[in-house]
Amino acid sequence: MSYKKTLNLPKTDFPMKGNLPEKEKELLAIWEKMNIYAAMRKGKGEKKFVLHDGPPYANGNVHIGTVLNKYLKDVVVKYWSMSGYDTPYVPGWDCHGMPIEHNVARAMREKKQDVDVLELRKACRTYAEKYVTIQREEFKRMGYVGDWEHPYLTMDYQYEARILETFKSLVEMGYIYRGLRPIHWCPVCKTALANVEVEYALHESPSIYVKFPLRNALGGVDVPTSILIWTTTPWTLPANVAIALKSDYDYVAFAADGEAYIVAEALLSSVASALGIKEPQVLKRIKGAELDSLKCKPPMSERDSVVVMADFVSLEQGTGCVHMAPGHGYDDYQMGVRHGLDIVSPVDEEGKFTDEVPEYAGKIVFDANPLIVENLTKKGIILASSRITHSYPECWRCQSPLIFRAQEQWFFDVGKKDLRKRCLDSTRAIAWVPNWSRDRMVDALEARPDWCLSRQRAWGVPIPAVYCADCGEALLDTGIIDRVISLVKENGCDVWFTASLKEIVPDGTVCTKCGGSQFVKEKDILDVWFDSSISSLRVVKDDGEPWPVDLFLEAVDQHRGWFQLSLIVAMATEESSPYKTCLTHGLVLDPQRRKMSKKLGNAVAPEEVWSKYGADILRLWFSSVDYTSDMGFGDEMLSPVVDVYRKIRNSFRFMLGNIYDYDDKKHRVSYGELGELDRYLMHKLQLLILKAREAYESFKFFRVYHMIHNFCVSALSQFYFDIMKDVLYTFAPDSKERRGAQTVLHDVLTVLVRLTAPILSFTCEEAWLSFPLGRPEKSVFLSEMPRPEPSLQDEGLASRWDRLVEVRDEVLVALERAREKKMIGNALESRLVLYSEDDNVKNLLKKHADLLDQLFIVSGVELSNSKGDLGEGSYAGEKVDLLVSVQKARGEKCQRCWMYSTSVGLAEEFPHICEKCVRAIRETQTNTNGR
Ligand SMILES: [Zn+2]
Ligand SMILES: [Zn+2]
Ligand SMILES: [Zn+2]
């Protein structure tokens, strides 16, 4: 007789191999059909959790970093939705701006098309639409849930109108001004750059010491005297208007070649060695303050350069005397404003000197540098020159070195009405994850200059200003802005370029300066960051959803970008932060921690991962890392995650396979009637729920990952599953022991699948849909996140069993040793004799004597009262006072359950199996006959 047929072997449709790339597509179709996002929101009550999506840029395929960002958002949305909250989640895209315009204009130029502004804008719109569609499909492929059919696009007409409405409020409140100020400028892209668009790289520059002769002699020094400065930007010398010293520093005038030079005393020796002077002779000592307001002759202009006092002067390098060009530096500019200095900036938009510097007019400043050095050296004005390599700002777009250039621009005054202070106060009050990111935001806010809002580009929202045709005065008039807003609502922003001035400027509008009534339209557009800074207002507040929103969640570079700019705009217009909690994550780098880029060829396309391994593997990897710092990612990092995936999948499969004949309504064994081991697992399950929920709610998803993995391995596959296989397979199907184990498996499975669903969405849905008798909810995402059930916890039982598990671990080591010595093969070939001198251990073993062979998976356990019974070679426990002797099991091997028993052969009908198996078969036959 074959006994295999009498066993209850597992049955399930849930395959061992995931074949995720194919299976995921089926699941996506199911979600699409049931409109999972709408279904998740349906019937949810008043409680809302709003995560507002920061818009990625609609250019190119999605980057792995953006996929990570949206993944974290997806986990949050799914967790809170399953926890009973309504979770509106509207994804968005940033559609205007430089990178799109750049690509589109290049393509048009290549086709030799004339780039007319309206044609260009039209092509940019089409381009952005194309990438919105591509990226949307990519995000959906990852299983991300959201209102993908109704995303917000910053180029939607209504959105564009809202940008202008916010701008108008800021104008009314006095935050917007037009001013001459130095800004980072890319001579190649010919545009101003926002702070966030500036990158730093190593760059070689001249390093020169330049003399500024004093207009009047210095008392006590008989020879001609000059102040000596050090700079790395010779091209800024024509714009020099001042020299900054620190009032409490000690300065000296020292002699060289019949002249005297003033430098900070602390830097004298380093300056002297740069100048090749061995022992400089000090002629006079003087405090910085005593030099205040002296006038010098600058090297490249006829004006005066005046000595001013400044705190930022340091003794780190140079001469302690700092060349100031307010038109070419931000510190210099602020200094200039304070001291009423001229803001000189003789450089045009291509980075070329203007006619104001006749000698070098038309030359690009970087090309002029060596000529300036050569000429001034010849004239004896530069005393020493060399070259240095230092960190220098460059354009994020084209990698060209940037210049600071003063230009008339539109600014957002961040100091107005205490705005910066209010933003700082709110930053200190709201929650930051991780906590240190608050400091980063504080630093970024403190350092932020006024926000330069104008860009000299075409693809964006126009600044609705006009200029007087007669005198050039700029006019920002709310009457004009109102007209523009209503035109934009109907026609989009193109209308600014097509509408006549008559349509835009109300009758009777006159220039505030000269009274003229003819105007021309502003050509500049708004910084694209202004577009995205209003998104939570447009998408959440205007739609009547709870605002400030619960969460902003973006990469760490957004402290200077979207986090900050959204805060500034909301604080100015709504007197509130737009978010309650702000979460930041690190960047995804390559395995060597380098930035992924096309240039380096080290970028991993997310598409490669999901078509090779499946999106769930990428999801699992994302959850396995501590996202708070930067993460190294490469194909080779996926294999440990693939192993973990297999363990989780196999755990699901084992449970699904063993409840094939279990109907929870009919077969459930009540908690009180469950065995101790079953109740112990129920207890552990409650702890898992509690801790996993805590981890989800504090956004520590990697903890959830480790807990689930650990539970699957140590609580389930190496413990409960291993021990209960015998009960599940060999006991009569309807026996209380087997139904009890199935009750536990059923509960563990329904908990685990739901608990893991936000992380491993595809596989958990697949498992959910594979439940033998189905589930009341059509999707795991329509079910509820489990909550810990206090009545299923039993601390007393758990602490006893924790101790038993320690004993078991010792026994498993003893069995392993015996196996190594070839005393046994399978553990079932053995019988154990145990001895302990610890009364607690003794009592524990005695109390559970009936369970021990099941717990250790051996064919017999004997508790001995005398050490002598154990004989030579017994194993002594390391953590538990226990001696274990492994001996050959008694009796014969049962052909059905593989346990050794002296009862094998006693039943005539079944000569090869043990009495336990005989009973199981008879019980099954009785039950079957009875039906
Ligand atoms: Zn550039
Ligand atoms: Zn005028
Ligand atoms: Zn048996």
TrEMBL record:
Which taxonomic lineage is given here? Answer: Bacteria, Bacteria division TA06
Q: What does this protein do?
A: Catalyzes the attachment of isoleucine to tRNA(Ile). As IleRS can inadvertently accommodate and process structurally similar amino acids such as valine, to avoid such errors it has two additional distinct tRNA(Ile)-dependent editing activities. One activity is designated as 'pretransfer' editing and involves the hydrolysis of activated Val-AMP. The other activity is designated 'posttransfer' editing and involves deacylation of mischarged Val-tRNA(Ile).
Q: Where does Zn(2+) bind?
A: 894, 897, 914, 917
The residues covered by the Aminoacyl-tRNA synthetase class Ia domain are 27-632
Q: Which reaction does it catalyse?
A: tRNA(Ile) + L-isoleucine + ATP = L-isoleucyl-tRNA(Ile) + AMP + diphosphate
What is the protein's given name?
Isoleucine--tRNA ligase
Please tell me where ATP binds in this chain: 598
- The residue numbers the entry assigns to motif 'KMSKS' region are 595-599
Domain annotation Methionyl/Valyl/Leucyl/Isoleucyl-tRNA synthetase anticodon-binding: ranges? 678-832
The entry's free-text remark on domains says: IleRS has two distinct active sites: one for aminoacylation and one for editing. The misactivated valine is translocated from the active site to the editing site, which sterically excludes the correctly activated isoleucine. The single editing site contains two valyl binding pockets, one specific for each substrate (Val-AMP or Val-tRNA(Ile)).
What's any one GO cellular component for it?
cytosol
Q: Provide a GO biological process annotation.
A: isoleucyl-tRNA aminoacylation
Residues given in the record as L-isoleucyl-5'-AMP binding sites: 554
Could you tell me the EC number(s) of this protein?
6.1.1.5
Report the InterPro entries cross-referenced here. Answer: aa-tRNA-synth_I_CS (IPR001412), aa-tRNA-synth_Ia (IPR002300), Anticodon_Ile_BEm (IPR033708), Ile-tRNA-ligase (IPR002301), Ile-tRNA-ligase_type1 (IPR023585), Ile-tRNA_ligase (IPR050081), M/V/L/I-tRNA-synth_anticd-bd (IPR013155), Rossmann-like_a/b/a_fold (IPR014729)
The UniProt record lists the Zinc finger FPG/IleRS-type domain at 891-918
Query: Molecular function terms in GO for this entry?
Result: aminoacyl-tRNA deacylase activity; ATP binding; isoleucine-tRNA ligase activity; tRNA binding; zinc ion binding
Q: Which Pfam families match?
A: Anticodon_1, tRNA-synt_1, zf-FPG_IleRS
